[in-house]
């Protein structure tokens, strides 16, 4: 197992390298660069000064030197300056938004797990019951409805017509502190959190149901029941422990889906997170920011997959990797 | 289960054909018979057909132009002339709903088709030949899967000046082949070890012939099922990207950019008839396609039924 983990970590390194090359490569395809968008069409700028500035910024260096400069700065948390937000540093911009996206992601994951796992278990224990059919129907709907459309309906019904939840932002009045601020934040995250978690909830529910059904049908569960073990012991000690294995792996791999979803969901609710920053940067061709966010999201996904793989090998010692 | 070809043959109790007859049927016929029994899937086919016909027949159903703008007539509530009112540029919402369906369906279908072509070719090469080619293709797939799909697509869109339907479909196909490639490769890997493949090689069949005659027919189940589900995904992807303004641009109507009108809080609040119908259209279409996909999966692989 340790051999596997070490090998898995070693694969992580070339993957990370490939990721940085892709992100850098795409940005190089862009027409123009950091300066041309600002200065090239400006008649007041002397072409010689323009050339000097290019030299100073290293834009005339060979491409591998530019790549090395970018990646070595990025490794120290320096992603350069934004082209759009009056040259504010990219790291500063991202720092302000990163926490918001993290809270939203965790909140939506929490809703997903709290809703999906119990319902999945119930569905499996009482298959073809009313709730099971309801859950299955919800599963189909949850996967078929575009999450931005669901978000808009949620705003239309729950926010505009009923006024139960705020439709955008993170805090209604700036300057709130302590518990009040915390509750206000949660209140703002309810709609985006549910919207973001919808597809995940549907997926986990279906997985959980089929996993528990699989395990309940296995011989060792029959043995456990036959020797007189109580229903709850069978469920918690034998069934769940085995049925949760694939769910945990799924969570690691779902990070990418969650982050992709966040881009659109945050836009619907005008939630100031990485997603909205990413979109506005794409729109403004603010490449230092686009590259930095793409890189961070890619790294998060790589780490998610790594953790999922490692957890998998720890939880289920039967799994062999050759 | 009663088809004309069977009528001369003996049938078992309850009109179920007895086992022997299965031998006279191709796997396709068997799958088709199983599919027919799935009511939800069959109904879904009719629903999807109805949607396609309505979109094709758009000029017969409305006399309004989906593209013509009318600045004197914006954000209007429904009238006899404009059944679903007009949008922020005075375009007729009902006409846009019908014509937009064409674009959304075409984009979904052609993105699926091109992904399928890339996926089948790369998956076949990787799974059949193995070795170096295989590892190059699979590492390529790993790399493509590293970035979240949407982030990758948006980063590419950021460097492109103008998005047309063709470019949009190309971007989707070029970024989403890895999943299908993996599935096809995995199917081939298990087929490669089978004896009939060895037999075919022994009698001198070419690689191309083995892939065409033995591999693809055996992998056709997963290929069709995934293609169906992919089309549903791409309709959602198109609408999502159009919603955030990075899909098919105005004035071309699509369901996604119709919903994006609702980013304007006035339209969201006052004109629900402008953005709810395209949303429901996407929902019904995707639901129907997913049911068909599930029906196909059960039909091609009866063991998957418990899922």
TrEMBL record, chain A:
Subcellular localization: Cell membrane
Residues spanning the membrane: 9-30, 102-124, 136-165, 185-205, 243-269, 289-312
GO cellular component, as recorded: plasma membrane
Keywords per UniProt: Cell membrane, Membrane, Transmembrane, Transmembrane helix, Transport
CDD domains: TM_PBP2 (cd06261)
A Pfam family per the record: BPD_transp_1_N
Keyword check for Transmembrane helix: yes
SUPFAM superfamilies named among the record's database cross-references: MetI-like
The UniProt record lists the keyword Transmembrane helix: yes
Protein's UniProt name: Peptide/nickel transport system permease protein
TrEMBL record, chain B:
Keywords: Cell membrane, Membrane, Transmembrane, Transmembrane helix, Transport
Regions of compositional bias (Polar residues) in chain numbering: 1-10
ABC transmembrane type-1 domain residues: 101-293
Keyword match Membrane: yes
One GO CC term, this protein: plasma membrane
Transmembrane regions: 40-61, 103-129, 141-159, 165-184, 215-237, 274-293
Membrane topology classification: Multi-pass membrane protein
One Pfam assignment: OppC_N
Oxidoreductase listed as a keyword: no
Region Disordered, annotated ranges: 1-23
Family annotation (NCBIfam families): Opp4C
The protein, known as: Peptide/nickel transport system permease protein
Species name: Virgibacillus chiguensis
């Amino acid at each position: 197992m340790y051999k596997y983990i070490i090998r898995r970590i070693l694969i992580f390194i070339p993957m990370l390298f490939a990721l940085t090359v892709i992100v850098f490569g795409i940005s190089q395809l862009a027409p123009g660069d950091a300066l041309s968008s600002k200065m090239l069409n400006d008649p007041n700028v002397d072409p010689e000064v323009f050339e000097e500035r290019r030299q100073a910024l290293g834009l005339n260096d060979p491409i591998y030197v530019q790549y090395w400069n970018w990646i070595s700065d990025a490794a120290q948390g320096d992603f350069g300056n934004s082209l759009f937000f009056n040259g504010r540093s990219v790291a500063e911009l991202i720092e302000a938004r990163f926490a918001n996206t993290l809270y939203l992601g965790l909140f939506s994951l929490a809703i997903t797990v709290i809703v999906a796992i119990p319902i999945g278990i119930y569905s499996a224990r009482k298959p073809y019951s009313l709730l099971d059919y309801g859950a299955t129907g919800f599963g189909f709907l949850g996967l078929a409805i575009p999450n931005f459309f669901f978000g808009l309906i949620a705003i239309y019904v729950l926010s505009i017509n009923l006024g139960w939840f705020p439709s955008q932002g993170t805090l209604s009045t700036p300057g709130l502190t302590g518990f009040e601020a915390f509750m206000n934040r949660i209140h703002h995250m309810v709609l985006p959190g549910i919207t973001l978690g919808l597809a995940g909830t549907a997926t986990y529910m279906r997985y959980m149901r089929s996993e528990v059904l699989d395990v309940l049908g296995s011989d060792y569960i029959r043995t456990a029941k036959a020797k007189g073990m109580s229903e709850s012991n069978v469920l918690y000690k034998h069934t769940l422990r085995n049925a949760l294995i694939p769910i945990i792996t799924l969570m690691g791999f779902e990070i990418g889906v969650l982050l992709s979803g966040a881009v659109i969901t945050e836009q619907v609710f005008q939630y100031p997170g990485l997603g909205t920053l990413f979109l506005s940067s794409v729109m403004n061709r603010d490449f230092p920011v686009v590259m930095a966010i793409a890189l961070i999201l890619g790294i998060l996904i790589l780490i998610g997959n790594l953790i999922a793989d490692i957890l998998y090998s720890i939880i289920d010692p039967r799994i062999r990797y050759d | 289960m009663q088809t004309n070809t069977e009528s001369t043959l003996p049938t078992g109790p309850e009109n179920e054909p007895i086992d022997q007859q299965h031998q006279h049927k191709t796997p396709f016929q068997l799958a088709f018979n199983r599919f027919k029994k799935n009511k939800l899937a069959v109904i879904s086919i009719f629903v999807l057909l109805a949607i396609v016909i309505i979109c094709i027949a758009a000029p017969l159903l409305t006399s309004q132009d989906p593209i013509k703008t009318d600045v004197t007539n914006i954000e209007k509530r429904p009238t006899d002339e404009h059944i679903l009112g007009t949008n922020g540029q005075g375009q007729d919402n009902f006409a846009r709903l019908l014509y937009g369906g064409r674009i959304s369906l075409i984009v979904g279908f052609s993105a699926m088709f091109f992904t399928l072509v890339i996926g089948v070719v790369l998956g076949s090469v990787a799974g059949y030949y193995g070795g170096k080619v295989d590892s190059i293709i699979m590492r390529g797939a790993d790399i493509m899967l590293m970035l979240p799909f949407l982030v990758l697509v948006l980063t590419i869109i950021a460097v492109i000046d103008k998005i047309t339907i063709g470019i949009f479909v190309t971007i989707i196909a070029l970024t989403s082949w890895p999943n299908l490639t993996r599935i096809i490769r995995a199917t081939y890997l298990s087929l490669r070890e089978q004896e009939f493949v060895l037999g075919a090689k022994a009698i001198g069949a070419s690689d191309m012939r083995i892939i065409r005659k033995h591999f693809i027919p055996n992998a056709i189940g997963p290929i069709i099922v995934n293609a169906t589900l992919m089309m549903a995904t791409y309709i959602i992807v198109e609408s999502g990207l159009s919603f955030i303004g990075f899909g098919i641009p105005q004035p071309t109507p699509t369901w996604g950019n119709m919903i994006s009108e609702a980013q304007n809080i006035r339209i969201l609040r006052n004109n629900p008839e402008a953005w709810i119908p395209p949303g429901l259209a996407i929902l019904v279409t995707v639901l129907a396609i997913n049911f068909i996909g599930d029906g196909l999966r059960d039909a091609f692989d009866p063991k998957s039924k418990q899922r």
